[in-house]
């Protein structure tokens, strides 16, 4: 075949999009194969009555033709709302013409709602344990957290936007999405000592995968300690002199979301220590009558109550034994 430069260019132009599209559909990225093309009237028809939704759709990743496996190449609105032909013919209306609404207020089952999203998102790594996750098992659907028409990062829902005293930006922090249901956690992160979640420095999803994990409480690491020491690396050890409860579980002494005691401790020192160290050479309890200056009344003075003033390497020590490393004092 003989072609001059110009004709070759035109021919390539005609065939390239098709090649790229085919490559996209056979799974270069982590997304599942696009679902069977849902049919129905397109955004230009819906726009007459739903201008806001069409606008948010077109501004979102879902509305980009460049996302080859996205709704824009799979029937647009119909990818999530089904065939809207009858809905349009009837002049619209809630529940009219079999229009599908996967939102939280609709009566569809949670699994049926999520199935619409999973048709495309199922094979993504972060969703690998969706089926084992607590959310799916408790009928929480994708759309309880995500609203594809929302402009917030990751399309997270903004149902009860609050004006955060800690943040000057208008953006709703991620925890607000979670706190609408997890009211107990919202209360905890407001306690005097807390991980800086309300301050926007860390997010719930730094520690949890809300899509599900195989670990307890959907934390992102296999164990609590590997999670904690992924950020607090200096507590990881190994130490020459280890403090057994530290190796075992950080949460033996700490709360994670918030606490009324300093440093997220779940009890105040010395009580915390005395749960395990009830007696010793300096027990930290009230002097007994035989320890005071005479008389029969118990002496109300305490000794050595601020345990960590001296035992300041409480997570473990690398000091030599002659340097009292074994007592975590240095
Ligand atoms: C990726 C899936 C998806 C796509 C694509 C999509 N929507 Fe939606 N849409 C939703 C979800 C989920 C809701 C429920 C939102 C909520 O209430 O949180 C919704 C809500 C709506 C509502 C409001 C329903 C109500 O309760 O008031 C309308 C109207 C709507 N969409 C129209 C459209 C139109 C028109 C298009 C195409 C331009 C479109 N949607 C594309 C998922 C989608
Ligand atoms: C002639 C006007 C009109 C057109 C065109 C139209 N709708 Fe609607 N639609 C409505 C009205 C009115 C409602 C009810 C809204 C309400 O009660 O707030 C509605 C409701 C919806 C809902 C919510 C359904 C529910 O049961 O909660 C969705 C989703 C929706 N439309 C999608 C679409 C899509 C997608 C298209 C285009 C294929 C479309 N609509 C075209 C008028 C229209
Ligand atoms: C037709 C396929 C398809 C359907 C159906 C679909 N998505 Fe998507 N979605 C995509 C593609 C493609 C992207 C682009 C990002 C990517 O490549 O991962 C995307 C992106 C996203 C993002 C990231 C957006 C961002 O701006 O960061 C979220 C969140 C999301 N989808 C949630 C949903 C939810 C929830 C549903 C169901 C209501 C849904 N999707 C339905 C294909 C789809
Ligand atoms: C309990 C709340 C919750 C549920 C339920 C949920 N998600 Fe998410 N999703 C999130 C959060 C939070 C993020 C952001 C994670 C981050 O920033 O690290 C996210 C991120 C995503 C992203 C990536 C967006 C991006 O910016 O890259 C996709 C895609 C997604 N979710 C799809 C889904 C699908 C599909 C479902 C249902 C099968 C679902 N999600 C269910 C909370 C949820
Ligand atoms: C610094 C890491 C971290 C952050 C940030 C975090 N969590 Fe947790 N979360 C954990 C750990 C660790 C557990 C407990 C696991 C265990 O008991 O073994 C837990 C437990 C939970 C539990 C179940 C048990 C309980 O204590 O009630 C829920 C629900 C929860 N977190 C929700 C959230 C929400 C919502 C956010 C954001 C506001 C959040 N978490 C932020 C680490 C974290
Ligand atoms: C629509 C309500 C709802 C929203 C929104 C929601 N959750 Fe949940 N979540 C639940 C339910 C219901 C359970 C299961 C019952 C329970 O353990 O409280 C659960 C369980 C969990 C657990 C596991 C608790 C355990 O004991 O194993 C964690 C962790 C968690 N959610 C974190 C989050 C995070 C992080 C977000 C925000 C990204 C979030 N949730 C948003 C309803 C919700
Ligand atoms: C994603 C990173 C991250 C993870 C994971 C993490 N933390 Fe933190 N932690 C922080 C940050 C950031 C601070 C605040 C530090 C600051 O303000 O200087 C903090 C502070 C603390 C504090 C001091 C609180 C105070 O009031 O001064 C304690 C105690 C703590 N974390 C324990 C834990 C425990 C226990 C775990 C595991 C359950 C854990 N952390 C997991 C990031 C993390
Ligand atoms: C035996 C109880 C105990 C255990 C178990 C424990 N801690 Fe602590 N932790 C403390 C005490 C007590 C303080 C306060 C020290 C102070 O006030 O000087 C503290 C303070 C902290 C602080 C803030 C101050 C600092 O030193 O940076 C962080 C972060 C911390 N612990 C992380 C962890 C991690 C991570 C683990 C698990 C690997 C863990 N802790 C296990 C008792 C414990
Ligand atoms: C959950 C129980 C537990 C808690 C809480 C606890 N410890 Fe320990 N601690 C141990 C165990 C077990 C050992 C190892 C004892 C041994 O080797 O004989 C130990 C060892 C020690 C040692 C070294 C003693 C020795 O004989 O080698 C000191 C000092 C110590 N702990 C101080 C503290 C202080 C201070 C606190 C409070 C901040 C505390 N511990 C909280 C269980 C605990
Ligand atoms: C004034 C400093 C100081 C304070 C405060 C202090 N300790 Fe000690 N502790 C020491 C020293 C030094 C040793 C090593 C003793 C030795 O070498 O004879 C020690 C030893 C220990 C031991 C191991 C020996 C034994 O007696 O069993 C434990 C356990 C212990 N302390 C726990 C605590 C607890 C719990 C508190 C708080 C109630 C506390 N300490 C407060 C300085 C202190």
Outline of the structure:
This protein is mostly helical and 330 residues long. The chain has 15 helices and two strands.
Describe this protein's structure:
The structure is a single chain. The protein is 30% helix and 1% strand. With 330 residues, it is mainly α. Among the domains are: 110-218, no CATH class; 234-330, no CATH class. It has a two-stranded antiparallel sheet. The chain is elongated. The protein starts with a helix and ends in a 20-residue tail after the last helix. The structure holds heme C (HEC) (10 copies). One heme C binds at residues 43, 46, 50, 53-54, 57, 62, 71, 76-77, 79-81, 101-104, 143, 147-149.
The arrangement of helices and strands along the chain is HHHHHHHHHHEHHHEHH
Rg calculated over all Cα atoms: 30 Å
Counted by DSSP, the helix tally is 15
Distance between the termini: 83 Å
Overall mean pLDDT stands at 84
As a percent range, the share of helical residues equals 25-40%
Main β sheet profile: 2 strands, antiparallel
Main sheet: strand order: 1-2
Report the principal-axis shape: elongated
Low-confidence stretches: 1-36
* Number of DSSP-assigned strands: 2
What percentage of amino acids are in beta strands?
Answer: under 5%
Main structural class: mainly alpha
The bound ligands are: heme C
């Amino acid at each position: 075949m003989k072609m001059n430069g110009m004709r070759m260019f035109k021919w390539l132009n005609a065939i390239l999009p098709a090649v790229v599209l085919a490559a996209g559909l056979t799974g270069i990225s982590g997304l599942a194969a696009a679902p069977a093309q849902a049919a129905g009237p397109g955004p230009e028809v819906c726009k007459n009555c739903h201008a806001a939704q069409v606008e948010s759709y077109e501004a979102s990743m879902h509305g980009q033709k460049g996302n080859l496996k996205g709704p824009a190449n799979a029937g647009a609105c119909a990818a999530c709302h089904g065939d809207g032909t009858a809905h349009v013919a009837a002049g619209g209306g809630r529940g009219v013409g079999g229009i599908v609404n996967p939102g939280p207020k609709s009566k569809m089952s949670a699994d049926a709602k999520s199935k619409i999203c999973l048709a495309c998102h199922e094979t993504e790594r972060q969703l690998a344990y969706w089926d084992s996750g607590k959310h799916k098992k408790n009928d929480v659907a994708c759309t309880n957290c995500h609203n594809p028409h929302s402009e917030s990062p990751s399309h997270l829902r903004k149902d009860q936007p609050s004006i955060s005293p800690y943040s000057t930006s208008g953006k709703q922090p991620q925890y607000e999405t979670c706190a609408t249901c997890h009211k107990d956690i919202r209360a905890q992160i407001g306690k005097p000592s807390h991980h800086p979640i309300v301050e926007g420095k860390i997010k719930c999803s730094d520690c949890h995968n809300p899509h599900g994990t195989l670990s307890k409480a959907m934390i992102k690491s296999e164990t609590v300690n590997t999670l904690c020491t992924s950020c607090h690396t200096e507590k990881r050890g190994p130490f020459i002199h280890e403090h057994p409860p530290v190796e075992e579980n950080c949460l033996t002494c700490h709360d994670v979301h918030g606490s009324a005691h300093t440093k997220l401790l779940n009890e105040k020192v010395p009580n915390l220590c005395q749960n395990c160290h009830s007696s010793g050479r300096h027990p930290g309890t009230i002097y007994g009558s035989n320890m005071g200056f005479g008389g029969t009344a118990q002496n109300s003075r305490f000794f050595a109550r601020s345990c960590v003033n001296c035992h300041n390497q409480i997570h473990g020590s690398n000091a030599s034994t002659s340097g009292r490393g074994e007592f975590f004092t240095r």
